[in-house]
Amino acid sequence: MFDNFDATMLARIQFAFTVSFHIIFPAFSIGLASYLAVLEGLHLWTKKPVYIELFDFWKTIFAMAFGMGVVSGIVMSYQFGTNWSVFSDKAGPVIGPLMGYEVLSAFFLEAGFLGVMLFGRKRVGPALHFFATLMVALGTLMSAIWILAVNSWMQTPAGFAVNDVGQFVPVDWWAVIFNPSFPYRFVHMVMAAYLTTALVVGAVGGYHLLRRTAPLRAGTMFSMAMGMISVVAPLQILAGDAHGLNTLEHQPVKVMAMEGHYDSHPDGAPLILFGLPNPQEKRIDYAVEIPKLSSLILKHDLNAPLAGLDTVPDELEPPVTVVFWSFRVMVGLGFAMLGLGLWSLYCRFRHTLYQASGLHRLAVVMGPAGFVAVLAGWITTEVGRQPYTVYGQLLTAQSISPVSAPAVASSLIAFVIVYFLVFGAGTFYILRLMGRLPRDPDGHLGQGPIRTAGITPASGLADGHAAHSVSHAHSHGGAHHGA
Description:
- The chain is mostly helical.
- The protein has helices at 7-46, 49-82, 85-119, 121-124, 126-155, 173-177, 182-211, 215-250, 252-259, 293-299, 320-349, 357-365, 369-385, 405-434, 464-475; strands at residues 160-162, 168-170, 271-278, 283-290, 388-390, 394-395.
- The strands form three sheets. Strands 1-2 form a two-stranded antiparallel ribbon. A two-stranded antiparallel sheet has the order 3-4.
- Helix 1 packs antiparallel against helix 5, helix 2 runs antiparallel to helix 14 (405-434) and helix 11 (320-349) packs antiparallel against helix 13 (369-385).
- The radius of gyration is 25 Å and the shape is globular.
- The protein starts with 6 loop residues before the first helix and ends in an 8-residue tail after the last helix.
């Protein structure tokens, strides 16, 4: 099965496989921790029970996602010593302390307050419990800071020197952490996490609105999720554009692969929407393109010249096909999220947010879109960096441990089997939890669609008394036809 792969390629596949499993859990837990903090804060502010009921529903799901993220992260980190020991030796003086700071500050903060958040509300009081929830949310954000500082330094290394034995040693920690791509990468990733969580929450809310099992709770989470998507999706597109300009400045070859520019364009480069990359002939076959638009986006000038991969030695080109398509998947899903947010705004303005079954179905379909977009974005970032592990400084082929291909293949097969069994079961359990939203306290709430009387677009279903009275009147007013 792996006869045509050398140890370097197999080690790359193994790391890509494990990091793909790992990244989806932190991306979800970062956003979900903040969502839990918002829910508890709203409950303390408004005293409405629906918020704490949703908090209790989502905190169990958060605990599962957090646990699987920790386990997958620990397993992934061991590969630095088994498969990438040369990289660990050379880059360890820089990335080692950053990883250590992540554990000491972020993970300890999360783990220290997680038990209080999950089990301590009746023991420590509402104020201290809310503080614990805020600390868990802060811990997830701090974890993202340190991990993205590591990854960003590998993309745009700064603040280092090379000692006599070829190791990267820090000379300016401020420049190491806040390297040129870190601010863009951090904002882009955190907003991706918020969008991922909002899409999942919106999908669960839409699913239960379609089933009419708990309109008050489902409608509340659906309204909050759609509101978040409406705000964050356009901001994410703007952040992505700024991140792209930063990448053009510091990693122009990656942008060439993303855009599919095999040839240089001295008088304006086209934006290639779709096509089939042909690495052998160095062209994009069947390209659908808009003339000069790439130059306008990247240089803000229709006639600005853009260099192509014809200016780069073949051995320094990233795998264009993978980067080209993963970038388009990410961008396409980003605009689909924007469309979902705009549709929800239209329905909110029309006071039909809770009756728009088409919107609910689309929200359910879009539920996994955030995870797919995160994975596509990481593929674009990591594969686009090739053939380097530390961009421009250390080649991937020079970073591998002295291991044989059969040894790496054996561990890869073991990882595939164990991961699909363990994390497949965990994911299945999370989905089961999402499908078990308790009914609203008033049994009548499950018997008919929600009306908008007494519910403002801004508050969603926050007015529990209005939702109760409307549903109660509806169910006793001869509305049995409204299935």
